Amino acid sequence: MKLFHSPTSPYARKVMACAIAHDLDKQIETVVTNPHDSPAELLAANPLSKVPCLITDDGMALFDSPVICEYLDSLGGTVPLFPRPGRGRWKALKLQALADGILDAALIRRGEEGRPPDEARLAVIARQQAAMDRSLDELEHEVPQKGLDIGTISVVCALGYLDLRFPGDDWRTGRPQLAAWFVATSEHPALARTAPPKSA
Ligand SMILES: N[C@@H](CCC(=O)N[C@@H](CS)C(=O)NCC(=O)O)C(=O)O
Question: Which residues line ligand 1 (CB under 6 A)?
Fold first, then answer.
C-alpha cells in the first residue's frame, strides 16, 4: 500500500495510528506530499488534492481519513477500531466526527489567521474558534473512554494538532479531565509513535 501524507497532517496521523494498532504500518510506503502544490501523482488519485490518500495493493485510491481508517480496520486481525453496529459504534463514529470537526475548524481558522485581518475574516475566525471551544467543552463534560478506537484516536490527533499549531490557546485550562485523559491515552504505542513534531 502507498500513503500520500504530510508529517504534520493530523488526518494522516489518524491513518498511521490505525495502521500501527493493526501492525500494518510496515506494509505501507509513505510518500510525503504537499497537497497545496497539487502534484500530479496526488491529483490522479484524489481530485480533491488532499492528504491522506491511500493506494491499496489492488490499485484503489481511498480518501478521506475515516474511509482509509475503516479500510485498514477491515484488514486488521486484532480488536476492531470501528466497533460492530450498536451503541458503541455510534459513539465511536460520533467522537470521530467531533474530533475531525475540531480539526476542520482549526484548519479554516489557521488559514484565515495567516491573512491580513478584515471584518469578514475576523468573523470567520471567531465562528471557528467558538465551534472549537464548544466541542472541547463537550469533551471535558463527557470524557472519552480509555480504550483505543477510531473515536479516541481521532480526539488525540485533534488535541495534538492544537498543541502544534495553537500553543497559545491553552485548551487545557478549565478542562482538567480532558487534559488527564489526553496524557494517558497518548501513551498508547500507536499514538506515541505518531506524535507530531514539537514545532513545524
Ligand atoms: N476530511 C479530510 C480532510 C483532509 C485535509 O483537509 N487534509 C489537509 C492536510 S492536513 C489537506 O490536504 N489540505 C489541502 C487542501 O485543503 O487543499 C480527511 O479526514 O482526510
Answer: 6, 9, 11, 35-36, 49-52, 64-65, 100
- Tens digit of each residue's pLDDT (9 = 90 or more) over 31-73: 999 999 999 999 999 999 999 999 999 999 999 999 999 999 9
Q: How close is the Cα of 51 to the center of ligand 1, in Å?
A: 5
- pLDDT < 70 stretches in the chain: 199-200
Write the single-letter amino acid at 177: Q
